[in-house]
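Quick illustration for those who missed Monday's session on complexes.
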Amino acid sequence: MNTTNQHDKKLRIGVIGTGAIGVDHIRRCTHTLSGAEIVAVSDVNIDNAKKAVTPHNPNAKAYESGHDVINAENVDAVMVTSWGPTHAEYVLSAIKAGKFVFCEKPLATTIEDCDKIIQAEQAHGSRLVQVGFMRPYDKDYRALRKMIVDGAIGTPLMVHAAHRNQNVGENYVTSMAIFDTLIHELDVLRWLLDDDYISAQVIFPRQTSHTHAKLRDPQIVLLETKSGVRIDVEVFVNCQYGYDIQCSVVGEKGIVSLPDPAAVALRSDAKLCTPILTDWKERFIDAYDIEIQEFIDGCKTGKIKGPSSWNGYVAAVAAEACVKAQETQAIEAISIPERPAMYK
Ligand code: NAP
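Prediction with NAP bound:
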């Protein structure tokens, strides 16, 4: 898009996929953030697309196909919030149209498709893609990283993390614990440690009775980084009690840990209680707001800064090794090629 005199004009966004997060991003662009408006939407169910923008986005048109959204003349930037396996097709189409695109994680569901995206973006010559890894925008993760960078815990040695969801549906299978869930840790822990992974192993503890035949739950993922940091991540997606994200980094002279989200404490009946969140949309609501505002501002200035296609590619490489490790129950190597200059 032409960036001259664009600062005062609203960025016109087209959204592909109006399920849970698509609707949430439409809400935040419409009611919470500044500088953008939703002008086009699509979903496999066009009635859902229409409902997602009515009545607050009078200028929005619903299209049958995501490609029509991308190619609509009045769409400046695209948001891909459809089902993961459709992401690559839409992101490649947006790059071809020369439009900025925010793609929810995962960037693509195979390494080959992630590779096609980074090749296409490099051929374009400048960044067009921001991937929806929002944890680096969370104030507590940022505080954790600052402490590590400032040397508060000395050299990091180990990370203990947990990603727990209250429950998942019958269509959530064992590999999704990696591609859908762990993928956030795969991105944010690299960023926290400023390091890359070299191996992965997956251990299956005793199963919870709350799972189903196609899902091993819980799982423990063990990662090793180039510098020798050892990471264990518990992924437990039927934990019953809430949505709970934990992370502690152990260093040579101290430990930094994510705090629990602020909540009112109730003293009553000889107990002290604080509620635990159950909805992921609430847990990272501020991070999503900052992430999408940064995307909007980046599109308007012609320079986006958030997690790149390279982050999406590296997460996919690590995720694929983890899925292999689920199958082999062995330690699997993770080999990440040199980062192309455009992403340095
Ligand atoms: P969802 O509720 O199932 O929504 C996906 C929507 O996309 C559905 O309405 C689906 O329609 C539609 N869709 C499927 N294929 C499409 C296509 N070819 N063109 C247009 N629309 C299509 O899932 P969600 O929870 O919103 O997740 C969407 C994406 O966001 C996933 O990649 C997910 O991993 C990611 N996500 C990220 C976060 C985060 O924290 N960053 C959180 C949640 C989700 P049908 O229902 O009819 O199939």
